[in-house]
Amino acid sequence: MKSKLKIGIALSGGGVRGISHLGALKALNEVGIFPTKLSGTSAGAIAGAMYCQGYRPEEVLKIIVETNYFKFLRPAISWKGILKIESIGDLFKLYLPHDDFAQLKVPLAVAATDIRKGKVVYFDEGELIRPIMASSCIPGMFEPILIDKKYFVDGGVLNNLPVEPLDGICDVVIGINCNHLPEESNIRNMKNLIERAVIMSMNYNVYSRKAKCDYFIEAHGLGKYGVFDIKKASALFQAGYDETMKVIEENPSMLELANPNAKHLSV
Asked: What stretch of residues is annotated with the motif GXSXG (predicted)?
């Protein structure tokens, strides 16, 4: 008899690299592994919200590729950021019209950073869209998001693999990171140097939580892709899928998590 354990999946942030999470979810679903609860930071929060809404991973990939994300962004006349991330709220409302954590088909928690208090906050109830935007608010690039008189920025600043909302609730936790850095023998320019240093910092707080995961999935080399390199969407999706299938093959105990009665309900 297959296990009916409560399964939690934590998804890291990583910009467009987060598309690989969709490939990982597709692979897990194909072998009968479905999350009881999902948590995410930044890109992981966006991918997680769409999945928990009921969209299949392939559907989310199609939406991302066909949507001109950048046309929704507006300049910010402020010292706090270059762009207003709030302007993409209308885009989220097209796919998450209820704007309510409670209306998701799978429970979700998203991590954001309270920039004034310097602490991580996990959102899992009430309005949905603003916490997702807060979780994705890259400091310096986007203006902070105001929620309940508090300013929030990207959750990855302090927690880029939010396993904490799954702790004590789920029997098994699967962590998925999309920022593995390949070795680099030649730092080509300042941009390359800064991007690499930022990813190293993000990965440091991911790896500090790796021990809290029963299984850890990390497609190699994804750190070489740029945060906004949307042209690589299909390759990123495939990388997440392939790595997850490899991890399942190397860890046959994962198949014991399969629940043949669980189905991912499409909207």
From this structure: 40-44
Strand segments, DSSP code E, in 14-148 are 37-41, 74-78, 81-84, 108-114, 119-123, 140-142, 145-147
Q: Please, are residues 171 and 144 in contact by the beta-carbon 8 Å criterion?
A: no
**Which residues are designated catalytic?**
42, 154
For residue 254, what are its two tokens?
């994962």
Tokens of 148: 């309940």
Show the domains of the chain with their CATH numbers.
7-253 (3.40.1090.10)
Q: Which two tokens stand for residue 19?
A: 């598309």
**Closest residue by Cα to residue 243 from 31, 8, 23, 58:** 23
- Report d(CA 86, CA 64) in Å as an integer: 18
User: Are the CB atoms for 49 and 128 separated by under 8 Å?
Assistant: yes
Tell me what the pLDDT averaged over the chain comes to: 89
What angle, 0 to 180 degrees and rounded to 10, lies between the N-to-C axes of helices 57-66 and 19-30? Answer: 160
Structure tokens of 149? Answer: 């008189």
pLDDT digits (tens, 9 = 90+) for 93-134: 999 999 999 999 999 999 999 999 999 999 999 999 999 999
Among 73, 195, 83, 192, which residue's Cα sits nearest to residue 139? 83
What gap in Å lies between CA 89 and CA 91, rounded to an integer?
Answer: 5
pLDDT, position 79: 47
d(CA 121, CA 135): 9
